[in-house]
Amino acid sequence: MEDKHSKDLSNELEKDNQGAVNPLLDDEKINDTPEIGNNSNDTEGPEQTENNTINFAEIADSVNKEQNRDEQTKQSNKNRKTAKGFVKGIAANVSVSVISSLLTVSLVSYYGIPFAGGEDVSHAKELEQGNTATPANTAVYTSSNFNGTSEATIADIAEELAPTIVGVVNMQKMQNQFNLQSQNVQSGSGSGVIFKKDDKYAYILTNNHVIENANEVEISLYSGETTKAEIVGADALTDLAVLKIDQKYADKVASFGDSSKLRPGDEVIAIGNPLGLDFSRTVTQGIISALDRSISVSTSAGEWELSVIQTDAAINPGNSGGALINSNGEVIGINSLKISEEGVEGLGFAIPSNDAIPIAEELMANGEVKRAYIGVQLYNMSDIVQFYRQSMFGSLTEGIVIAGVEDGSPAAKAGLEVNDVIVAVDGQKISNATEFKQYLYKNIKPGDSLKVEFYRNGKKQTATIKTAAN
Prior knowledge:
Elements lengths: L8 H9 L22 E5 L11 H19 L21 E3 L14 E3 L3 E3 L32 H8 L3 E11 L6 E16 L3 E6 L1 H4 L4 E5 L5 E10 L4 E7 L20 E6 L9 E18 L2 E10 L11 E4 L4 E9 L8 E5 H14 L5 E2 L2 E5 L5 H8 L6 E6 L4 H4 L7 E5 L2 E2 L3 H11 L5 E8 L2 E8 L1 E2 L1
Antiparallel strand pairs: 1-23, 2-15, 3-4, 5-6, 5-8, 6-7, 7-10, 8-9, 9-10, 11-12, 11-14, 12-13, 13-16, 14-15, 15-16, 17-24, 18-19, 19-20, 20-21, 20-22, 22-23
């Protein structure tokens, strides 16, 4: 089932205001008046109203009332998606959908998280991490049987790689309404790639959204056998997960190539399980349409921007976690997204292998991706309607507003407060919360320090924050 139910914007605001799904917060404890640290370089800046505090709960309530009044006009104007109130909605031109295939079961209910500015995707709440595993030094990445020559045909490549592509079935526990007993039922399915093997286990790389919220994961193998998989680790922001099965089920391991060497126009094939396991290991052909595409996504861990490969190879529901393969028979991407809109075809996206493998290795080593954490909840200044923005922040129009500071967090220790407006980090201009998180997570390691520039009551100040691990 490709399409999922949309979440109400007011519910999203309520969750954000409570810090429930904000990845920059380690828990939900918010202190509106943290201890002030030593700030330097105070300078006059744009006029900002003093001693005013935004009541984010009241604002969210006003948004909900506005939306209720607009409800009658939505059906007559489906293309218009404008959120009234404190946070302005983003009009998306396309619907970006994750491409796991969901089986319709009468006892199963489905839900989604907005993707790319408010569109629906198949995402669930954050998955509990499974047991971690550190691979042995004898593990290998390459297939021993493929010669890797340019003379190989598509059929040769497909024949060689097909045994490394598996079906990944998300099993969730549902209660039988007749006898009140719970049982595991198939909630959805996707694809995965056997990418590593050691003396005990074979490791499968797939998308986080394929296995998210699973009570049990079942693997369908090339041989027709099925086996249970253990979740080694998963990361919602990068949409990657690693599973492990007994090594006896893996006769071959996929070879991964260098995605940085790709060029637009290079021929590729995609192998996966579109529309479920009945069409397992379907092969489609296309080209690399573009590189380094940036796709804004809303995940169970917060907003993020994925850097992806664009391809016109047919990618359908169920291909999530499958392989995008170059003409040398090397996996150069993990298929993850597609644009789904009437009249739009051939817009699929894959996570580059050079991004996927380091994340996979960290998941194998730690069970999770360790990121720098400062303990703040943020709103985009640009998303605040003009009336509130001018009354609270004067002439400031860009930056990110601190809506909450966790008690005892690195941000609290550095003296940051609610209603501070961050405009730069380490000298780099910051316009929105996604940019801030991208910089923090990609450039700052836990324990490193960063310098933030912010406005408080119209005065520009600086503070140095020593980060912690999330």
